[in-house]
């Protein structure tokens, strides 16, 4: 059921998410793709986490970073995709006022935390390739703990204003969100107030946080490539590229998908509204599925740990 615009001035207490405005009669078919992707993403990440937990040889800083990435992926999947599937399967479009802004907060915060985790992993690769003799003294368990505390605090402080700025608005008009997700602007534009501050803060925070992470990641890999070109052994070059190449591919895929979503969203009426909505949903599924699978396949120690786990 979709409510009509609220002309009485009564405060909105819940929102209705209709997902794809032009595909409401057929959008449920998307669950044929989304449900298996969700199962794959959750299953692969859970297996990876259990493997790292149980295999003593994987109790090292590099694998702790992978475990952190898997936890973030699981949280992001569970925050968004189950609700989308409930909309498709059972038409459960209602979400409470507080629930909507909680989802907005988790999405904004954990996406930025994941970006910062990629940055720390890029630094891990940089130290491993450029300063191998100092690796064990630089990348320690304490380093991982300090890095985790810093990136959580940094991104929590930077993203917390986003849901608060949206929640403070006066929602006295329509309560129909034309999205599958409680995205900041999709919700804020339903208010009766001025949302220029919301838009400005989102642009500044996204580009400052994600933009700075991406620049530092690319800088790290530039140093890595320069170091690799000076290696004399062909085997050493192959090992270095194998170790960090898969990391870079996943990182670039993550940011490429994210920036495509941002630019298509900004394009407005030039691109059908279903496109950025679908990209936003897929961004909560494809990177989580790929991350765990690629790291599991490309990292020999993890592959052996998974094989040992499955034999029990």
UniProtKB/TrEMBL annotation:
It is a multi-pass membrane protein. Pfam families: 7tm_4. Keywords: G-protein coupled receptor, Membrane, Olfaction, Receptor, Sensory transduction, Transducer, Transmembrane, Transmembrane helix. GO terms for biological process: cellular response to lipid. One of its GO terms (cellular component) is plasma membrane. It comes from the Eukaryota. InterPro entries: GPCR_Rhodpsn_7TM, Olfact_rcpt, OR51/52/56-like. Residues 44-295 form the G-protein coupled receptors family 1 profile domain. The chain crosses the membrane at residues 29-50, 62-81, 87-106, 206-228, 240-263. One of its GO terms (molecular function) is olfactory receptor activity. It is found in: Membrane. This is Olfactory receptor 56A4. It comes from Sciurus carolinensis (Eastern gray squirrel). The lineage of its organism: Eukaryota, Metazoa, Chordata, Craniata, Vertebrata.
